[in-house]
From TrEMBL:
Organism whose genome encodes this protein: Pararhizobium polonicum
UniProt-listed Enzyme Commission number(s): 4.1.2.4
Recorded family membership: Belongs to the DeoC/FbaB aldolase family. DeoC type 2 subfamily.
Localization terms from the record: Cytoplasmic granule
Upper classification of the organism: Bacteria, Pseudomonadati, Pseudomonadota, Alphaproteobacteria, Hyphomicrobiales
Record protein name field: Deoxyribose-phosphate aldolase
Xref: CDD domains: DeoC
């Protein structure tokens, strides 16, 4: 996936985040202005939506997941846009796929099998997803299991208690151990920001995760009461930018959870472009974690091509 060096981490440096204040009102104002700053029309919008598809971690994380469901999802990842729409867009030969598939550890072998012959990576959640309250040795074993089964990306969850009690050393040590267990697999650190109470905590947890070597920071599991929001994402990308300036390391960003529409996708793409610039509009540095956003994007692309909206049951998956 990545074309640049991985984040090597920096060691724990509380001085980079302890005195930081995040102004919630200003973050909310900036978040609201993003939606109005840039309107992207017609062919540009279609191009941005195709870009969004290439950045989706197409996800299924349900208790009733089966090999059959994972196979269907993988087929959609290989061919996320219907052939006739793709042809009308002039993209038939571009090999458009989603950024990755994201599943539970026991579903990894099914996904690897279904994606054989493609270059679509399988991402696995691990470490007692979603609550992250299993003992550390079992969390690390779960990472190793998923990697052994062929996962090339691991989405870990942090222990929220370490953030809520400001125990940065415990948080750093935990994430560093997870990073080591990942080996060559890229690690996304899920902060579960809906559980962290303040934007200041979100900033601090982002910094610690990056200092511990996270290749991506990710907002949410999709299972918290509040998942990806723009003010939280803004706080995280600002931390990411500050970390880059202080360390020279490059880290990716993954909003996840509750994003369902093409409009959501556009909003997050605009956020990335405005805050971080074009390199963060590529799948090696940006992913949209979503189980049910692709259908609306495909529907909007069909509308662009035909001038009509299809019934949503014509785009039944994802
Ligand atoms: O990591 C991805 C999320 O779990 C997906 O959440 P969602 O089902 O709300 O799209």
């Amino acid at each position: 996936m990545n074309t640049h060096p991985r984040n090597a981490g920096t060691g724990l440096k509380p001085e980079w985040f302890e005195d930081i204040a995040v102004n919630r009102t200003a973050s909310e104002r900036r978040a609201a202005s993003l939606a109005t700053r840039r309107t992207v029309k017609k062919e540009y919008q279609a191009a941005w939506l195709v870009k969004a598809i290439t950045c989706i971690d197409l996800t299924t994380l349900a208790g009733d997941d089966t090999e059959g469901r994972v196979k269907r999802l993988c087929a959609k990842a290989r061919r996320p846009i219907r052939d006739d729409i793709l042809e009308a867009l002039g993209l038939a030969d571009e090999g458009i796929t989603t950024g990755a598939i994201c599943v539970y550890p026991t579903m990894v072998p099914h996904a690897v099998k279904a994606l054989q012959g493609s270059n679509i990576p399988v991402a696995s959640v691990a470490t007692g997803f979603p609550a992250g309250l299993t003992p550390l040795p079992q969390k690390l074993a779960e990472i190793r299991y998923a990697v052994d089964q062929g996962a090339r990306e691991i989405d870990i969850v942090i222990t929220r208690e370490h953030v809520l009690t400001q125990n940065w050393k415990a948080l750093f040590d935990e994430i560093s151990a997870m990073r080591e267990a990942c080996g060559d697999a890229h690690m996304k650190a899920i902060l579960a920001t809906g559980d962290l109470n303040t934007l200041r905590n979100v900033y601090r947890a982002s910094m610690v995760a990056m200092q511990a070597g996270a290749d991506f920071i990710k907002t949410s599991t999709g299972k918290e009461d509040v998942n990806a929001t723009i003010p939280v994402s803004l706080t995280m990308v600002r931390a990411l930018r500050d970390f880059g300036a202080l360390s020279g390391q490059i880290v990716g960003f993954k909003p996840a959870g509750g994003m369902k529409t093409a409009k959501d996708a556009m909003l997050w793409l605009i956020l990335m472009k405005e805050e971080l610039g074009l390199p963060w509009l590529q799948p090696d540095l940006f992913r949209l974690g979503a189980s049910s956003m692709l259908a609306d994007i495909e529907r909007q692309l069909e509308h662009y091509v035909t001038g009509r909206y299809a019934a949503s049951n014509r785009h039944p998956l994802a």
